[in-house]
Amino acid sequence: MLKYIHLEQIDSTNAYLQRLQSECDIRNWVVSADMQTAGKGMGSNSWESEVGKNLTFSLALDVSFLPAEKQFLLSEAVPLGIVEVLDKLLPVEKLSIKWPNDIYYGNRKLAGILINSTIKANMMDISIIGIGLNVNQMQFQDWPTHPVSLKLITGKDFELQPFLEQIAEHIIIKVEQLKADPTTIEQDYLKRLFRYRTWADYEVGGKFLRLLMTGIDPFGRLQLVDEQQTFYTFDIKEIKFVL
Fold it and tell me: Structural domains in the chain?
């Protein structure tokens, strides 16, 4: 059973749950907010969201069944749960997961995910999964990710709370699937991976390279090859997608 908490304003829903973690059992809590004053994307990136227009929330899950070295499986399962819901609203062929876990519509960013996890010994413990999904916002700054919302795509308004509950439930289903069938999650992730098996331009250390994405290694690093058959492996922030 999920416990839903809605706040008008908070610095960050992820930070809010992290503060509570030492005080109480936050497992299966879902905290959403109309406004985050310090919402974050991957690394030091900020997250733009008009007040009350989008889904900005965090979900705390017990993932103690997962070995620490397998934690990238969460970055595969979580976006798959969201995409499963979005597939019912948007053309499937235009929805993809941009490594490691952003959700794109064509070449435009629709959602971002930030996962903060604790580890005990060699096993995962609690993961706090922060999600920003552009829903009803109509105007964005001209970020390099070219943000887009469901309303910009469909012309329709969406009720946020029912939509939030649907997404949270689908995420839990996918994370639970990791217990018995992680291989299918890995395969499904590759099927939806943005630019998988496609030649495209990337920026690495200030240089532009034409590369073919070939897969993901066991630690979640991106694997690519160039036209001379030189193989590359990149961690987060070591490579930029040229969009």
Answer: 3-192 (3.30.930.10), 199-241 (2.30.30)
